Amino acid sequence: MSDERWTHKRWARVSTIRRLSADSQRRRRPSFPSIHQDLSLVVWNLEPGQENGTHQHPGNAHALIILEGRGDYVKEDGSTVSIRASECVIVPRGRVHGIRNSGDERLSYFAVTSIGATGYVRNVVGQSAPLGDPAEVARPGK
Question: Which of the four pLDDT bands, split at 50, 70 and 90, describes residue 121?
Fold first, then answer.
């Protein structure tokens, strides 16, 4: 039996974090398994030394739940806060942020992101975004 299914005439999507994480690992990049009119869900898997470079979402707020590993949450001024499994980071819309795996094992986190009036918009801040395109835009219904 599949661990992902649509319920109640496709009004709600039910999945597991394990499935989202496996899809992200298989594709070797984060996947956006669900971009809905209200929320986007994604599991990021960062190997030691990898990072989701600094960026911001002008109209999107985040909740980041650390599933495994440890690393650094990078703030707008470049300072960092240590993060580890079972912790949660709330990122207000428009706030510059990034995550770096500073540990010696995989850092995985589950991101729940609100969808603003213009969809999901990710603007790179700084020199590079190793795991992301400089201007990723995903709109509900696309």
Answer: confident
Question: Strand order in 135-138's β-sheet?
Answer: 80-84, 70-75, 97-100, 51-56, 120-124, 135-138
Instruction: Answer for the pair 119, 58: CB distance below 8 angstroms, yes or no.
Output: no
- Please choose, from the candidates 112, 120, 97, the residue with its C-alpha nearest in 3D space to the C-alpha of residue 51: 97
Structure tokens belonging to residue 12: 């709600």
Q: What is the pTM of this model?
A: 0.70
For 5-138, the fitting CATH number among 2.60.120.10, 3.30.1330.60, 3.90.70.10, 3.30.1360.60 is: 2.60.120.10
Query: Which of 76, 64, 65, 57 shows the shortest CA–CA distance to 116?
Result: 57
